Amino acid sequence: MPQLEKHLLFKSLNSLLIIATDIEAITHSHHALQVTISMGEPFNFTCEEAEPALYQGVIVGADIEHSLQGRNGQYVTLLLDPELHPVKHILGNHQTSGFAQIDENRLTQMRDFIQFLIADQASKTKSKIENPIAALMSILSQSDCQQALDSRIETVIGYIAKAEHKMADVEELAQVVALSSGRLIHLFKQEVGIPIRRYLLWQRLLDACAYASLHAHDEMNCDGKSDLSLTDAAHQAGFTDSAHFSRTFKAMFGLHPSSFIKKSHMIKATNDITL
To answer: With pLDDT > 70 as the criterion, what percentage of the chain qualifies?
Structure first.
């Protein structure tokens, strides 16, 4: 199996793929639907919907508290915007519990694809895989049946995804779809399941994570740390300082951003996952 020198990151407008040599996340929750698989050794996983145990592959619904620990292997994590239509069906019949183990067939298909992706990145003549996140989502999806969001909420989510720095406020978003701020807040929570401001925070952190990974290795100081990049990422995400950003990042992802950034290398950004 090809070995990694750095974590590999692939980002779409709404989602993140991380291929890592270890995984260590304390108990946390986030708006993303999370998919994590091991390429070899199982990982420790705990969530409010399942007993602590060793797993080869798990799917965790949005806003479910969980923790993961895995060492000396290769681990793949997908953080997917749960409002994307294909994502709505990844949990399949397990949606009510918010947790599912990945079956052996899909696990094998995902591992085969990840091995190809890692080898492709190491090759001098890359095959130019356009969208690895979409490819993995295709493997995971169990149904083409979709229940569309309210068209106004789809418009808002698309607007947020393309907004610079994800700093659009509720009043601005309400104007985009000709609603009052109060009506948008109510409708967004009704359709999406979480407050719109928490959704905006998730999008800002996702962008900051990608920004920091892209710039960290160009801005290392003499001690090999990336404080400058972390500060820039905080400002990029709309936080006044890196301490506030770090606390929020840890609450959402279960680890300190500096430990994540220094191990990560952004490969490319993809922008064609659709709602």
So the answer is: 75
Q: How far is CA 240 from the centre of its chain?
A: 23
Residue 141 pLDDT: 79
Q: Are residues 161 and 203 in the same domain?
A: yes
**Alpha carbon of 274 to those of 40, 50, 190, 256, 261: distances in Å?**
31, 31, 21, 30, 27
Query: For tokens 């993961």, what's the residue?
Result: 68
Which residues are within 8 A (CB) of 267 and not within 5 positions of it... i.e. 6 or more apart?
8, 9, 10, 121
Domain boundary among 140, 170, 193: 140
pLDDT tens digit sequence for 209-259: 777 666 654 544 444 444 456 777 778 777 878 888 888 887 777 777 776
Shared domain for 67 and 136, answered yes or no, is yes
Residues 180 and 249 in one domain: yes
Is there a single domain that holds both residue 135 and residue 200? no
205 touches 234 (CB < 8 A): no
Looking at 82, 117, 140, which one is the last position of a domain? 140
Record the pTM. Answer: 0.73
Residue 163 resides in a domain: yes
